[in-house]
Amino acid sequence: MIVARTFSTTADTALVNNAVNMAVDNRTRSGSTILHADHGTQFTSWSFGENMRRWGLLGSFGTVGDCFDNAAMESFWARMQVELLNTRRWATTVELAAAMADYIDNFYNAERRHSYLGNISPTEFETLWTSTYSIPQLA
Question: Which residue intervals define the domain Integrase catalytic in the entry (predicted)?
Fold first, then answer.
């Protein structure tokens, strides 16, 4: 499930810090939360590290060059490219950002079925999981 999204014309530290802040604002966390990212400069910056510490997030950065570390996000980007981005020409970046937000919030999370989740949406999976299991508390 995509729990936060921000848009910018540059992939900089401000962009990823805004996404982290949005995720923290949108989600209830129990115990420690792991934030997985790749080794891009925006994720290895001092500012990003400080923001993670501020929110009590644990960073996970995987192995350099390991294509499987970020496979879920790479799959998401590929699907959105086919299902949304390549379907038309976008007049403005504002129009594109609105379409991407709608795709994530109202289609990808809420309706799009995922085979690795048993052919249900991420929202349905989360509801099912949280009604079946308790969220572990880390000491």
Answer: 1-130
The domains located in the chain, with CATH, are 1-64 (3.30.420.10), 70-134 (no CATH)
Give just the sign of the alpha carbon dihedral 79, 82, 83, 85: positive
Structure tokens at 47: 């500012």
Return the exposure string of 73-83: e unless at least 16 CB atoms fall within 10 Å of the residue's CB, then b: eeeeeeebeee
What is the pLDDT, as a whole number, of residue 136?
A: 60
Cα angle 117, 121, 122; round to 5:
75
pTM: 0.81
Residue with tokens 């729990």: 3
Distance of CA 12 to the CA centre of its chain: 16
Residue 88 confidence (pLDDT) above 70: yes
